Amino acid sequence: MRFVLDAEQRMFGETLRRLLADAGTAKIARAWAAGDAGPGRALWTAVAEAGVFAVAVPEEFGGVGLLPVELAVAAEELGRAAAPGPYVETLAAAELLGESPWLSRIAEGEALVSLAVPHAVDADVTDLVLTLDGVERKAGEALVSLDPARRLFRVEGGGGFTDFGALLCAAQQVGVGQALLDVSVEYAKTRQQFGRPIGEYQAIKHHLASAMVELEFARPLVYGAALSYGTADFARDVSAAKVAASEASYGLAKTALQVHGAIGYTDEYDPSLWIRKARALYSAWGSVAEHRARVIAAL
Fold it and tell me: Do 137 and 170 have their domain in common?
């Protein structure tokens, strides 16, 4: 199964990738994790100006209408850049808000929204926290998070997930996995052991090749699910994509740690940002077991 993005979709993704690269998202993610939301808010505004939120909002509220494939492209690039903030949650909330005036604010990049699925991401800095039935809530106690740049808060009435949010999370995971693959391959080319780059050793090659294959199987499932939005198969396709993306990105996190060694997990080294995010997203927007069960039930 092969899905090819059209020229406009590719340009959208490439433009967003350049914007995020120029912004220096690793530094922004560390500031966000330390409680300084200023740089992250500035990045949020730039992402909005690039049109990301507009493709999640109806035209009558300042958007261009919901475009699932374009949103999957955006989520993948945001994951690749380890961009901090509730991007997936805000984009998924736009689907739930009906004709709320919040939609105009989302389209303009003026509102950060978190959804209680079951916990609310970065609810201490968002403008709105919702449960899936559309009830506005206040964030409760802070919880321990596997990713310091993805803070979690308990919310009364939280639980469940939406298919659209799970799709965007899967796309984000593909981006995280791609970043981990790229940085691991580059490290294997330059790190030397016994007088040779470690990438010349067969064991390293096999680890990286296997991880790449998993990622390349996950990506078309994500875009296939995006294309099935609005059909009877959407929930099944999303769950298949989420399982594949979760396993691929988490597998790449483990491979990256094996390739880099212990340095890969140190706070000062950028791969740690993606390694932690891969683990945190593995169980976000529905567990792998839940999504596998949904796929099996649909057979």
Answer: no
